[in-house]
Design a protein that fits this description.
The protein is α/β, with parallel strands linked by helices and 205 residues long. It has 5 helices and 6 strands. The longest helix is centred in the middle third of the chain and has 21 residues.
Length: 205
């Protein structure tokens, strides 16, 4: 799939703002197309006069426990966000596949994510910072080795009732790349568009 590009979309890399190019993340050798560029493209369709800055912080194959306050990944993400921008508008969160393999991690997930969101908002001094999460693919199941995918998605959705400026994006109808775990490129493009539409609704509220 052809990478998206637009001079109005920048990314923060090596302490500098540069034109955004895919892959935005370099956490894994196989990293490729994600959801952030189509997310940004939809925002530009609605607001062509703006410039969008993306701050890549994702690391694949990690548990939410590795993102809790005080951990290396959490501290690095907060430091990067502070260095990149004084006007952060939102966080795009897609995580949970790893935790869908263990019932104990599932049981702790809601508390962990709620704590994470509150801590990030406090540290960045943005109590109303938008937080956009996304469901896991419904193809994740026992056969893929992650039997609690639906449970994680249910938790992500349920937090809309208890966390302000938070929304969970539907993954209905999206497909995997053949491994019953990761979305394919076309689905990631669509997912990014859905993230953008939910973000715009949240901002309008």
């Amino acid at each position: 799939m052809k990478p998206l590009s637009d001079p109005r979309i920048l990314m923060f890399r090596n302490s500098n703002w540069i034109p955004a190019i895919e892959p935005l993340h370099r956490d894994r050798p196989e990293a490729g197309i994600g959801l952030a560029m189509s997310f940004a493209s939809v925002l530009l369709d609605h607001h062509p006069e703006i410039t969008i800055g993306l701050i890549p912080c994702a690391v694949g194959a990690t548990s939410i426990s590795e993102w809790m306050p005080g951990t290396e990944l959490y501290q690095k993400a907060v430091r990067t966000a502070r260095k990149a921008s004084a006007s952060l508008q939102g966080i795009l969160w897609h995580q949970g596949e790893y935790d869908a393999s263990d019932k104990n991690r599932v049981n702790a997930y809601a508390t962990c994510l709620s704590t994470l969101i509150q801590s990030i908002r406090t540290e960045l001094r943005t109590p109303d910072l938008a937080f956009i999460a996304g469901e896991l693919g419904d193809f994740i199941d026992t056969d893929s080795g992650f039997p609690y995918g639906c449970d994680i998605s249910g938790i992500l959705k349920s937090l809309e009732r208890s966390i302000s400026k938070y929304v969970c994006v539907s993954a209905a109808g999206l497909t995997d790349k053949g491994d019953r775990l990761h979305f394919n490129s076309e689905s990631l493009r669509e997912f990014g568009k859905r993230y953008a539409e939910e973000f715009l609704k949240l901002c309008n509220k």
